[in-house]
Amino acid sequence: MTIGIVGAGQLGRMLALAGYPLGLDFLFLDPAIDAPAGKLAPLLNGSFDDARLLAELARRCGIVTFDWENVSVPALRQAKGAARICPPLAALAVAQDRASEKRLFERLGIPTTRWCPVGSHAQLTRAVRDIGLPGVLKTRRLGYDGKGQAVLETVADVELAWLKLGAVPLLYEERIPFTHEVSVIGARSTKGEVAIYPLNGNVHTDGILRVTRAPYGPSEWQKLADRYLSRVLAHFRYVGILAIEFFVHAGRLIANEMAPRVHNSGHWTIEGAQTSQFENHLRAIMGMPLGSTRALGHAGMVNLIGRMPPLPELLGLPGLHVHDYAKAPRPGRKVGHCTLVERSRGERDRRVRGLLSALATHTRIP
Amino acid sequence: MTIGIVGAGQLGRMLALAGYPLGLDFLFLDPAIDAPAGKLAPLLNGSFDDARLLAELARRCGIVTFDWENVSVPALRQAKGAARICPPLAALAVAQDRASEKRLFERLGIPTTRWCPVGSHAQLTRAVRDIGLPGVLKTRRLGYDGKGQAVLETVADVELAWLKLGAVPLLYEERIPFTHEVSVIGARSTKGEVAIYPLNGNVHTDGILRVTRAPYGPSEWQKLADRYLSRVLAHFRYVGILAIEFFVHAGRLIANEMAPRVHNSGHWTIEGAQTSQFENHLRAIMGMPLGSTRALGHAGMVNLIGRMPPLPELLGLPGLHVHDYAKAPRPGRKVGHCTLVERSRGERDRRVRGLLSALATHTRIP
Hints:
The structure is a homodimer. Chain A is an alpha+beta fold. The first copy, chain A, has three domains: 2-85, Rossmann fold (3-Layer(aba) Sandwich), CATH 3.40.50.20; 114-174, Dna Ligase, domain 1; 180-363, 2-Layer Sandwich (D-amino Acid Aminotransferase, Chain A, domain 1). Helices cover 33% and strands 28% of the residues of chain A. Chain A contains twelve helices and 18 strands. The first copy, chain A, has helices spanning 10-19, 51-60, 73-79, 89-95, 98-107, 121-131, 155-165, 219-236, 269-272, 277-286, 311-315, 345-363, and strands at 2-6, 25-30, 43-45, 63-66, 84-85, 115-118, 135-139, 149-152, 170-174, 180-188, 194-196, 200-205, 208-214, 240-249, 252-259, 298-305, 321-324, 334-342. In chain A, helix 1 (10-19) crosses helix 10 (277-286). The radius of gyration of chain A is 20 Å and the shape is globular. At the A-B interface, helix 11 and strand 17 of A face helix 11 and strand 17 of B.
């Protein structure tokens, strides 16, 4: 069976690496001829909303999925033909609009931040008055890795942020004084089977995920996260991997956003779980039995940002699993990640700290 | 860096799957246009001894390795140009000729079977008289998976085997009444670093490896195997993965044959060891630090022979890691394997038995 994937980034690349052992073939669509997954499988080279190429992808593949959520829902819907598109386009559409996402969380009883849509300067002034400062102004669409966001602490920030972002629909939300950021990742198959991974504890720097540790946090958090994720999965009769990110504040999990795809905070599952999120995404969309999400130890994942450190240095660190996405260096770009799986939480945390310091000292990642 | 691989079978495919996360690229040479590794990387399509294609491979790749040992040593030597070929061609040449292999084992003080070269019917008669019956008549070259072999139990067998095999150089060796078959796999890097995996216990059916369990056997066996493997690695100033298969008889390890490449009995290392044999082969030939060979549990690997069982059945078995080589079905052909990693030896053995019986009952592998 050939799986079509819209987007040939590192997520698509890791889907292919997980899928070849299952005997699957892949066909990608991506505007970048040198996209990370393009070395591993044939690539249709063109825009994400190229109707002709999307139709070709759908014609040549029984199932189409995506590794990037800013793809055009109408273009996908129109091109789909006889192919099955997973995850469902309804979930993709909601995830593309922060306001729809907030409304969905509210409707499903999932705590989220207080927020207001902002379509004009007057609405922004009112939102800041109602919700207060500090807060975060975000574009409703096309944000990722901290792009399209501004933290507002003072009235001067409000004006600057409006000048920077005000050309597109926005929302303003309270800034949660969180103690932890966590995410939950789970799969639902075409047969309705659900499998949820142990909770991830995440640290972001400059809006970009830097470190994930899993399993993470007390069992109460896991129970809440499982409950919230299950509601969203059931709501959409979802198929594939879904991730939800939460702030933890005063023992509550407050949903920040969701991603209808394999997720950076789940990369540790390649070596650290019985079945990786990539394999479970493929199992789910093919209607195969899901694999166990059991953690095999205490995993730590560190993103490599900007450019890859020298390979001999990384491979010289005992037990480190290296993932190079074969991307050209660029400041702030995720170019790879590495994962450790240790026998205890303490040892894992100690080694993650050592790794971060080795990366900072020896390789000067920008 | 691009690694050239002569042979695009399942071993090459698994080398590429291990190498992409390290940021490597691959170029294969294989006579089969639909070879298993050809879906994952570009393929030069032609004979293994095509001088022009071998030269192109060497020109486009800094390092050339092979996933199949019946490639022409003179053709490789002639084509090599500026490329480095690993493992060394001297080791490949010895492994291609069972008589050279036996002489090497003898020279390095590694116990092997009693044997005689057989180039004529008279020599066969003398060999059978000296070594006795039962014994095994083997072609000196081009044997694999039990091909080119005949077990001789009676004088009638001798004549039949001569008719069948006598056209090419042979050797006759005693048949060891072994209690176990084991293999040892290790890597030596360009820097002289050596890393050896826990011992594999193997079961063959009709000359084809059926099951490997690892770690296997008492520590004395491991010590002997490590010592013998280290001697061969040192002798060749070897670079890459080397495997040696042994019969165990009366507490002794008796070398049967060696393979200068990643080895079927090491497939369990993908999920069952800290670093897979495929990754360590690549690390070794690039001169990178080797990864730990520590076992993560008790692994059992079962080869899938003839045709793949239905994927949903395999994925329905808890914790089973499936590897489909994307090969057309054919009786006696290795088309895939699957691996379990359990917490105890007893649980592993129980699950391997269950798996063999499930495969026999539900999928009727030819």
